[in-house]
Amino acid sequence: MNIEDWIQGLPKVELHLHLEGSLRPATLFSLAQRHDVALGAASAEELGDLYRFDSFDDFAWLFLAGLDVLRDAEDFADATAALAAELAAQNVRYAEVTTTPLQHHRRGVALEDYAAGLDEGRRRARDEHVVQIGWICDISRESEDPQSHFTVDFLLGRTAPEGVVGLGLGGIEHGFPPEPFASSFAKAKANGLAALPHAGETAGADSVWGALRALRADRIGHGIRCLDDPALVAYLAERRIPLEVSPTSNVALKLVPDRQSHMLGELVRAGLVVTINTDDPAYFQTTLNDELRAAHDLHGLDRRALLDTQAAALDACYAPAATKTAIRRELKEITP
Ligand SMILES: [Zn+2]
Q1: Is the pLDDT reported for residue 266 higher than 90?
Q2: How many whole angstroms from 197 Cα to the centroid of ligand 1?
Q3: Active site residue 201
Q4: Distance from C-alpha of 30 to C-alpha of 315, rounded to nearest angstrom
Q5: How far is the CA of 97 from the centre of ligand 1 (A)?
Q6: What is the pLDDT of residues 161-188, one digit of tens each?
């Protein structure tokens, strides 16, 4: 079997992708039409040209345009269902999808509508596309006052969406270290939620150490900069703390000069628990299948190694036990 078909057939789990970064041109265009928002494009195809951005400003523009069209419950449900259709087409069985409640609350979206939309989207993902979704709601470092506990209180309150598995930490890593958010994460953990912060993406090893020590991180979002500190690599490897590596994202945001020089192979060879992810798949124009293919073609991960990344993602996820068992059974039947 050729590698492309083999990757397509692999039952998959993805741990790191953002709902707000998943709007393909067709979805963004139809949501914009629904709300009479002008995006400077006459069709979804024309809008697609704007996705081929080359600067961070263009990426930021697109990201904000995507946020602007997510206004009511139906929008969140449709965005989630569109993402689920895309995941199902790649044989992704389960995904942990990150979304940022404060971002929407600040724009005037009622949290009840937001949660209702996520619930409906998650139900449609399951019933129409046979994709299970677990939500990660993340704190935006630069916009949330750590003393407010806004995100964790939302997750533990009566308007929380169903199926939340963890508390995340995203946003600008530089200048916004993890430590001030320790009490939010302690509260989340005490209530059975996992600690799933981004760290070691744009900032270095200190940020990862902070996530481990202050937040008791269960996984590290990105974590690629751990390679700066051999003691940290040893710590992560010994405790089997998974990294959610997203190579195309790292290149798109210019953290790595080009795809060939990405450190994915190095992370695997260092004995770290590596999972492969898309981060903002629409805006970075990637899919999980594309990521696995590039890992194979450019970073020396053979079929056995690709299978290991999927087994690692399955082990590291917070899917219900029955879902995990079913996917594990399917993975065991795959010949590398
Ligand atoms: Zn991310």
Answers
A1: yes
A2: 9
A3: yes
A4: 37
A5: 10
A6: 999 999 999 999 999 999 999 999 999 9
